[in-house]
Amino acid sequence: MATYKAPLKDMRFVLREVIDFKEVTALPPFGEVTPDLVDAILEEAAKLCENVLFPLNRSGDEEGCHYENGVVRTPKGFKEAYTQFIDGGWTNITTDPKFGGQGLPATLGFVVQEMITSANLSFGMYPGLSHGAYEALRAHGKPELQQRYLPKLGDGTWSGTMCLTEPHCGTDLGMLRTRAEPQADGSYAITGTKIFISAGEHDLTENIIHLCLARLPDAPGGTKGISLFIVPKFLPTEDGKPGAANGVRCGAIEHKMGIKASATCVMNFDGAKGWMVGEPNKGLNAMFVMMNAARLGVGMQGLGIAETAYQSAAAYAKDRLQGRSLTGPKNANGPADPIIVHPDVRRMLLIQKSFAEGARALAYWVGSLIDKAHHSDNAEAREAADDLLQLLTPIVKAYFTDMGSESANLAVQTYGGHGFIREHGVEQLVRDARITQLYEGANGIQALDLVGRKLMMKGGKPAQRLLGEINGFIAANKADPKMAEFVEPLEKAIGRVQESVMYLMQNAMKNPDEAGAAATDLLRLMALTAMAYMWGRIAKAAHAGLQAGTDNDFYETKLATGRFFAKRVLPQTTALAHQIKAGSETLMALKAEAF
Hints:
By secondary structure, this protein is an alpha+beta fold. The protein has helices at 8-18, 22-25, 35-53, 55-63, 78-87, 106-119, 121-140, 143-155, 283-319, 343-375, 379-415, 417-420, 426-434, 443-454, 461-477, 484-507, 513-548, 552-569, 572-581, 585-588; strands spanning 66-68, 71-73, 158-163, 179-182, 188-198, 207-214, 227-232, 234-236, 242-245, 248-253, 264-277. Strands 3, 4, 5, 6, 7, 10 and 11 form a seven-stranded mixed sheet that branches. A two-stranded antiparallel ribbon has the order 1-2. A two-stranded antiparallel ribbon has the order 8-9. A hairpin with a 5-residue loop joins strand 8 and strand 9. Helix 7 runs antiparallel to helix 8 (143-155) and helix 11 packs antiparallel against helix 14. The mean pLDDT is 96.
């Protein structure tokens, strides 16, 4: 069976010894966030995820959601779990105290989010997008809208959605047709159809708040003519209760490959009353707040699935007897050895383990960048953190979800035929993981965003900050012989990144297809290099731990896992650099009719 237990020891290690969470708790709003408080939050989150959410993962997948006449019911146990979830305050741990939130660091929110997505990705979809809706409204909503909606979104009584995609257009939002007609009372009548709307309709909350992109009658064409509107399922009354039904209705739910317990809806807006968020024709500026939060959230889904896949595969490999070790029996009294003795099984497990542990460090570092970008009292520090955050967002979204899917497939491979059948539960991980590479911008779009926008932002300043961060670590640790096995391959990898970016700068202006051809490979190259940087930081912390002599087995295991990454995963950067320099010619040579 699939298994999950929150890796609290690893989580604490990253927070305390790798990214130095004290830098976050030293920020002005977080003075009361003590180690004891953090431990208590992590332990309670682990109990909820292990004992309440994870047991519903398989049953929710088997039952799915139920749709009848515009109404969606979630699988058995979800409503009770959600009530327990909001009663525990888990929806508002990082929200603004001004609107009833707990005001805890985003870094801590990432840790809890990892546990939720590891335990039950479908369940996590319901409160997940609410956070993005909350942030978009907090950043761009008028005060009266904030007062009306943020407390309810924060405490989980109401939930939020993101309504972008339409039947005829996905990523190309410039083609959207949903209309917004101004009304005499200052509201707008929203008419159109949106598809693939996660948690668009369900029975978990008393109201659902849709953030919907639409066009004003006089809007220019393309993306410059899009506005953002808040459209509630039920119109709030003066005392903040759900009132009359609005003109928005679920027309159907999708029958999907995975995340079957998450309602993915077709939403029909028929003159629904909405209110503008942000400025006219600048809706994408406001929506990008939600989209970036969602992209990082989806990246965390990739990490969450990878962790559960690894734990399940490792447990199975220790128990399953099959064949004998190539170096002689290791279970001499049994009919065969456990499959974990076989090098190829260890290869699969170590790919999963080295990804999950390195990605955890990278994710929590990104969480700390959010906290610094929002709360540092130093303007330069805020700008530097935001620059890194903007650059790393497409990397985290695409690489983490690619690897979450790969890890799930490796778990099935470890189980062999038993992984392919439903009985053991890991085939669900493959199906659930697949969507993460598609929604919130397919991973090829993330690569184009990285190459076409993020690398060139502010004259390349964010990219220079990341290179400077990594080169600074290399310079600080190059003379340490214990760190050589991590620093030297990292230095070569960062050189390949610089060479590849230079190649693009020299060639993409002459032929834009060069950027498109290189984008996915460059994103993976930069992701592997960022991971190698985090493994360098993990190794440095592990050596410090060994010197303190407190938990030698734990730290030696970290170093051994990091060596695997450096010697058997990071060398992929060599091939990626060659692929980038191969250019676009072989991709674009065939005529369309030849395919």
